[in-house]
Request: fold
Amino acid sequence: MKSVEGKVAVVTGGAGGIGRAMGEVFGKAGMTIVLADVQPEPLAKTVAELAADGVEVIGVPTDVANYDSVCALRDAALDRYGAVHVLCNNAGIGAGAEGPIWEHELRDWEWAIAVNMWGVIHGINAFLPTMLASGEPGHVVNTSSGNGGISPLPSTPQYAATKAAVVTITECLYGQLAGTRVSASVLFPGPHMLRTGLFESWRSRPERFAKTRPRVTPYTTVEALEEQMKAAGVPIAYTEPVDVAQAALDAILGDRFWIHPENPRTDEALRQRTQSILDRSQPDNYLRAVPG
Ligand SMILES: NC(=O)c1ccc[n+]([C@@H]2O[C@H](COP(=O)([O-])OP(=O)(O)OC[C@H]3O[C@@H](n4cnc5c(N)ncnc54)[C@H](O)[C@@H]3O)[C@@H](O)[C@H]2O)c1
Reply:
């Protein structure tokens, strides 16, 4: 997209953290914003605050784990603003599993897969047909994480596995969108920790994914995590959500696939990966790339 002024952006997980920052930054760039979140009250508060700042914004309570709910989000956006140009599949949770992976509850897996992975798939299926049919330029930003998207933290298999899946899904989407007016990017928030609600996702865990047995260790809080880092001598640095949102906006305008913290060790690997996606998006090359 060469310009975002007057265009419509839908952002999931928009009540707080990075999603809210996308609403702020995109709104200041002249976009109309549709924020979606599973928590209606924080969503309404955020929408009121952005509107008070002059952003044209509505909030649509949405559960990205539910396809009908995501289709209703699309319909609400189209009813109100007539088009969707940018879709940010950003809602995500940390599953809060404890102990070794072989003792993790299946519910921990189910919740993480439902939100972090199905949420992205639901967004793609609900919105892409409309975005492509409009014939207008568009962009999809899927939020992954360095944790899983680049390499996993072994203590968080549900999160890391689902965020790795987000990278692969977005790579396939990017390859398939080649030659259309819609593009895609994968977002790795960072380079440092973001002090958002993510570390306390357990506070709003839905009943249908509730744990089946009590936790042995207390749930993490951001403060507890910081204490652990200090005790381990790990330097603590923060990235502001608005900087991540600005990086996403820059990537939309510059049509860059990887939105990741500048890191010379990964830059070349990612560049090669993008080339390989584009090569494989050509049917002839794809056939050559499949052994046998
Ligand atoms: N905070 C970090 O350091 C960090 C790092 C890498 C990636 N991320 C990713 O960034 C994205 C945004 O997270 P954040 O850090 O802003 O955390 P956050 O908890 O502040 O925001 C996530 C939002 O998603 C919403 N949400 C949860 N389940 C939902 C559902 N089923 N349907 C709709 N909305 C739902 C939450 O209510 C919350 O408002 C997530 O995908 C997260 O995995 C965050």
Q: What stands out?
A: Residues 98 and 215 are 8 Å apart (CA to CA).
